[in-house]
Amino acid sequence: MTTNTEQWTPPTGSQAAALPTGTWWDAVRVPEDIGEHALGVLGARSGAVIKDRCNTLYWLIAPGSAATWNLYRVHVLSAVEGVATYLGVPPVDRLTPPGSHWRVPFTRDGYLTDPRLLYKALIRALLAVAGDGRREGR
To answer: Which of 31, 54, 74, 117 is exposed most, by the fewest CB atoms within 10 A?
Structure first.
């Protein structure tokens, strides 16, 4: 698959734009509880992250780099057999709510997250969140 990752920039203006996955990037969709923990694990190694109005987090990764992932509560948004899934991408300068915004700001030289690091961080986050749930249930 040919990608155009170097040529992509988020929309400008005041509105989010629905952009297809699988062209410039794929997106990893994670609920807020797992996503915030994973952000803590990744720290400065995280690329750009979008947070939508439902408090779901989306990491941008290289197209096809998470095709084999199968993690509970984690969904990879990618083009499948030429059919894209669309993600609402906020304007480059929208850093706060309301609505979709950049939880981790876009930077041209580091907006994609290394999928291997993200995978490991998500596993740690899933284990931590599951552990918290067991403690609360006692």
So the answer is: 54
Token pair 């979709």 is found at 100
Tokens of 37: 């923990």
H helix runs in 20-98, sequence order? 32-42
Angle at 44 between CA 33 and CA 117, to 5 degrees: 70
Question: pLDDT tens, 53-67?
Answer: 999 999 999 999 999
- Cα–Cα–Cα angle for 135, 137, 138, nearest 5°? 70
Residues 6+ apart with CB under 8 A from 51: 32, 35, 57, 58, 97, 100, 101, 102, 103
pTM of the full structure: 0.90
For the record, the structure tokens of 95 come out as: 């850093």
